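Cross-check.
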Amino acid sequence: MPLTLYFAAGSCSLPSLVGLEEAGAEFEAVRLVLPNGDQRRPEFLAVHPRGRVPVLVVDGVAIGENIAVLTAIAQRFPQAQLLPLGDPIQLARAYELLAWFASGVHVAFAQISRPERYTRDASAWPALKAGGRENMLAAYAELEAKLEDGRDWLLGETFSLADPYALVLYRWATRLEVELAGYPAISAHAAQVQARPSVQRALAYETSDRTLIPA
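Predicted model, tokenized:
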């Protein structure tokens, strides 16, 4: 089954790359350079009209939106145990985290980094950014509380796709100039996630030469 993943460095598409690497999947990774506007180019909009990443193409069918992509990967490679598909309660807990990251935390980050998504009124952007920062700090505090019991992974003893998604939020802290010394549990979790070979391979794609628009 041919697989192609469109992604962008530093974005929320990292968990999809990690999932494919964890599964040992054969796939093509195509990097979009967002500051160059690759997400708005006709070549990509023909694949996914919303112009967002990640996008997974399976046998010519494009799947967008993070939770849908992560679900498709987990279902396609059940042996990798990327989500607790056999345990309804644990699976619900996993989706609770993924949904919060995607529809809550990510939205707060976008308020700061892309306020024009929410209003064309530039005079409202400072307030949007300030509110987004408050929400991001609240999210870091909630995630810190969740991890401070010393658990290995967000769902307990088992790694899941929620863990590399949390790593995305950790990496965004630098862009927000949030001092992570105040979040030792988040930092310890991020270090553990980054130590996985699959994550190291996924991060290597961020500097790969294979882009949507060749240089």
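The helical segments are 14-22, 42-45, 66-76, 88-113, 125-147, 162-176, 184-194, 197-204. The two ends are 29 Å apart (CA to CA). Passed to J.P. for a second look.
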